[in-house]
Amino acid sequence: MGAYIAKRLLLMIPTLFGIMLISFAIIQFAPGGPVERVLAQLAGTDVGATARIGGGTGGGEVGGGQAPGGAGGSEGSFKYRGAQGLDPEFIKKLEEQFGFDKPAHERFFIMLKNYATFDFGQSYFRDVPVLQLIKEKLPVSISLGLWLTFVSYAISIPLGVAKAVHDGSKFDVWTSAVIIVGYAIPSFLFAILLVVLFAGGSFWNIFPLRGLVSDNFADLSWWEKVLDYAWHLVLPLTALAVSSFATMTLLTKNSFLDEIKKQYVTTARAKGLTEKRVLYGHVFRNAMLIVIAGFPGAFISAFFAGSLLIEQIFSLDGLGLLGFEAAVNRDYPVVFATLYIFSLLGLFMNLVTDLIYTWIDPRIDFESRQV
Q: In this predicted model, which residue has the larger pLDDT, 296 or 124?
């Protein structure tokens, strides 16, 4: 297993390189950029990011504001929207400030060198280190991601097993109907409904609407802090969990049904084993393999992408909202840093999944196969 882990860790390097290279190349063709945003602010027309005037056949700056060919640029080789009447020397200093006076390939390899030591530089428009920004947003995203994954699995696995055991019964039918309805409701719409009903919208004012903790959190005792934290998580977690556990529940049910129909289950029952022993001593270990395979994707989705709209509705300042605002504002150090961190996290989670495979079923041997 040690050799397999070493191979997987080494394979993360070219994988990360490919992810960053493709993303960096795509950004070259995106309209607007940090320089254009500054010029738009000076012109009073800033809407987050503006389109480029002019063009050519070559690359472009990170964000699309650099001259064709990726070698910097000046007013003589291209034009920025909003640059009319501004000193070309001022625009050149802006390019140097953002690092766009260097060729695209040079900027890319400088970025990789810095990222290898987790040096993500400064945010273009917040004037703080990117790593500090990410650290400030992590508590919100970790809270939503970890608790959502825990709640989803805590509901999905027992419910999926129960549906498989009572397949075709009234319980199976009505729970399937509830699951389908829950899956069909967008989480952000359900979140708005929860706000209207329980957060002082039009009915009850039971749960808080903003933040993860109350303003007087520091003055509370430890058990009051726990209750306050849980109190603030109820609505956003409920909104996220309603649709998130549907897929996992059906996956668990189908996996158990497939295993229950196999010959070894019939043999175990013929030997006089109890139904509980058959289900949890034999079927569970095999059925859970496919469920575990979906864990990395579920965790990453809950940790980042799945929480963006919920963060906005409940005023939770997490990584999802940070990444979205950075993309809109062309704050590329933040964009690439979050991409790098979550790509790295996803690769590690895939490795952890393989290790859990072998823990649940020792018959699986990754060591003897080609990576």
A: 124
